[in-house]
User: Fold this.
Amino acid sequence: MLDYLLGSEIAMKNVKLVIEYDGTNFQGWQSQKQGRTVQQEIEKALKIILKKEVKIYGSGRTDAGVHALGQTANFKEDFTIPVAKIPYALNSILPEDISIQSAQEVPEHFHARYSAIGKKYIYKIYHAPFRSALFRNYAYFIPEPLDIEKMRKASEYFIGKHDFIGFMASKSGVSDTVREIYALKIYDSKGWLTIEIKGNGFLYNMVRIIVGTLVEVGKNKIPLEHIPQIIRSGERKKAGPTAPPQGLYLAEVYYDSIR
Assistant:
């Protein structure tokens, strides 16, 4: 079925993929012994197309239930299929909750994770009196009143370079916990809050804990002026709860300028 994709020359190529997926029915990105993962599904599809085992390397892990608009991955292999045809071939095989948005040949040294200089995440909150049946897997439902302006003011304290150890899940095993946030914006549109955060890197659950803390500010459970002290303390218990995974989207991975 894929014979029409074949070219004539075989050469080792390094291919970068941009991937969109609905994380609802996945146990996350990374391959594991039990549970369905995005990485495993893509590697299975590549094996069918290239007729060999292929290992792909993602820009980072996403947890169960977390979505992606612009996850990136790369693989190195020798094959004859034109790189521009790879999205067509993969999308004809992959399940409907994964879509390859683009494929391009990149330099041999490129690595989806180690070449990345930053990421952008989006977090969706559905703020309304009643839960949505349609969007239950794609947003954090909050029926309580929220002070959006307080949340915006609190978000400004996160911008810049800080030690975010207090906004990291326990037992993460990371030695360097300093990260820089370049932008953190909150958009409000008819009951939908979109929190957009851009930085040079993020600790495990960092975005979800920041969101959980901002929500506590919006509920008037954490005074916004306490945020600097919470960051400086480095104590996880002082920050807000971890927001649920279904509201989180990996929007973009940067390899050039992100400012």
Notes: The first strand starts at residue 11 and ends at 21. The longest helix spans residues 38-50. The beta strands are 11-21, 57-58, 67-79, 98-105, 118-127, 140-142, 160-163, 178-189, 192-199, 248-254.
